[in-house]
Design goal:
Layout lengths: L12 H11 L11 H11 L3 H7 L6 H18 L2 H20 L5 H20 L3 H21 L4 H15 L6 H6 L6 H13 L5 H14 L4 H14 L4 H13 L3 H9 L8 H12 L3 H14 L6 H15 L2 H12 L7 H10 L7 H12 L2 H9 L9 H17 L3 H15 L6 H15 L3 H13 L6 H13 L4
Helix pairs in contact: 1-2, 2-3, 2-4, 4-5, 4-6, 5-6, 6-7, 6-8, 7-8, 8-10, 8-11, 10-11, 11-12, 11-13, 12-13, 13-15, 14-15, 15-16, 16-17, 17-18, 17-19, 20-21, 20-22, 21-22, 22-23, 23-24, 24-25, 24-26, 25-26
């Protein structure tokens, strides 16, 4: 790849207009975002979607069509309003056709098309249309490669192709034949480099590329602290960007940082989308503040129009009541969870799996789990101090006991004890379809990477991939595959 000088750029839209016209003078004017379109783009980042739509004209210029598309894409991804799906899908197809018909050599033309196909690959996946998602991904990849080859200096396309390569690079090896069938080639490391380049170089979508780079670091590359710090800087520049708030809180959720999230959310006057109430519920559960968790989950359920996370929210309300000692409400909400929502997200899949069997979770382990997830490691360890293995009923609960101890010691940076309990987890679980052992393998891989023992790390990452049909297979497989891709030869 060509080397570029790295410069910083403000996200304020007037400056972006200056950058666009000074750096991409070869593009035709009707492909370049106007000041009103960039205002609309900023409104989307604020999740002020009505103002975003109002700022856009009914122009048939490709730039206007693209930003109208982007507004509806974000609406579907964040709010998941199934009643809007058909209308937005029609709009997507009409806009694609309109931009495709324009005969122009501007690199923005193919960039817009590849982005639109990529976005709807995400939408279709979120809505459960997996074949349609794969088909849109194929189209996006083909256009993206063509444009990147034809215009290697055009940074927005490097950003787009970087996302695609990272996505394809996370596909498990057993499905690579499908990538070949679709004419797509995975190159995870190259994709990460493209994203990094796009996040450091001046162009219209640099801020967006920076957010995606942080997302990849935090959710795929186990570089959560760096991703959080980088996202904090982005949020400092644009404090009212709700989409960046969502990314920031999601990263905190992944990084066991309930205390920091609670402090941040206390300063938020109002949530811009129902999903924020769900996130608040998660953090309250991790602080063992069950009454506030119930209020937050109910606020989410009462305002959300989608189908994802519904089952998990009802399930967690039931758990909150159980942990407070209200068994009648526990039963009521778990019955509600069984018949509500879908089982597409990993949290919903986990809830669904738990709801299909009689409740037998050890409440001390459950409290320790929430405390660990929130970053309250010493409190979690205190919870487990009085627990003896011989008093724990059931193989699954006994396995979870070892797993919880391993996670706590790992977070407390006691690598020797963490490794000992991870190994006990793997041995004790045997061939049962629980997530404890596969994640233990993943974490052992990370521990050995830190020790520069890459051979052993690869053994554990590969072993993590071998476990079948557990609740978090997609995310654990993606992380293990990404880790293997980045190991030295």
């Amino acid at each position: 790849m060509k080397k570029y000088s790295f410069k910083r750029v403000s996200f304020a839209y007037p400056f972006l207009v200056l950058i666009i016209f000074s750096h991409f003078s070869f593009a035709q004017s009707n492909f370049l975002p106007t000041s009103s379109e960039l205002r609309a783009y900023n409104h989307v980042w604020r999740l002020d979607l009505q103002r975003a739509t109002a700022a856009l004209s009914n122009s048939k210029d490709p730039s206007s069509l693209y930003f109208a598309h982007f507004t509806e894409f974000v609406d579907l991804m964040v709010n998941e309003d199934v009643e809007q799906f058909d209308a937005y899908e029609d709009n997507f197809e009409d806009r694609l056709q309109a931009i495709s018909k324009i005969k122009d050599k501007s690199p923005y033309r193919k960039f817009y098309l590849s982005q639109m196909h990529l976005h709807w690959s995400f939408v279709y996946m979120k809505m459960g249309h997996e074949f349609s998602s794969a088909w849109q991904l194929k189209k996006a990849f083909k256009i993206s490669q063509q444009n990147a080859d034809e215009n290697p200096d055009f940074m927005p396309q490097q950003y787009n192709l970087g996302i695609l390569q990272v996505m394809l690079g996370a596909v498990p090896e057993k499905y690579h034949w499908l990538l070949g069938l679709f004419g797509m080639k995975e190159s995870f490391e190259e994709g990460v480099l493209r994203l990094d380049l796009a996040a450091r170089t001046q162009h219209v979508f640099q801020y967006e590329a920076s957010c995606v780079r942080n997302l990849v670091d935090g959710f795929m590359l186990n570089k959560r602290e760096g991703a959080i710090q980088s996202t904090e800087k982005l949020l400092f520049r644009n404090k009212d960007f709700a989409l960046v708030e969502f990314l920031y809180l999601s990263l905190l959720l992944k990084n066991n940082a309930a205390k920091e999230a609670h402090q941040y959310m206390q300063g938020v006057q109002s949530f811009k989308a129902p999903i924020f109430y769900y996130i608040a519920g998660e953090f309250h559960m991790q602080r063992l503040n069950f009454k506030k968790a119930i209020l937050s989950y109910n606020a989410f359920l009462n305002s959300y129009k989608g189908l994802n996370n519904i089952k998990d929210a009802y399930y967690k309300i039931g758990l909150a009541y159980k942990l407070m000692g209200y068994d009648a409400n526990f039963g009521k909400y778990h019955e509600k969870a069984k018949v509500s929502g879908l089982s597409r997200t990993e949290s919903d899949k986990y809830a669904d799996k738990q709801l299909k069997v009689a409740f037998d979770q050890n409440l001390v382990l459950l409290r320790a789990r929430f405390l660990t997830d929130g970053g309250y490691y010493q409190l979690a360890l205190e919870e487990l101090k009085g627990v003896q293995l011989k008093n724990i009923v059931g193989l699954k609960n006994q396995t979870e006991y070892f797993y919880r101890k391993a996670r706590i010691f790992h977070k407390l940076k006691n690598s020797l004890e963490a490794e000992r309990f991870y190994r006990k987890t793997i041995t004790h679980q045997g061939g049962n379809p629980w997530y404890f052992a596969p994640n233990a393998c993943l974490q052992l891989g990370y521990l050995h990477v830190a020790q520069k023992d890459f051979r052993t790390a690869k053994i554990y990452f590969t072993k993590a991939l071998a476990y079948k049909k557990h609740e978090y297979k997609n995310s654990i497989d993606n992380k293990a595959k990404s880790a293997i891709n980045l190991l030295p030869d």
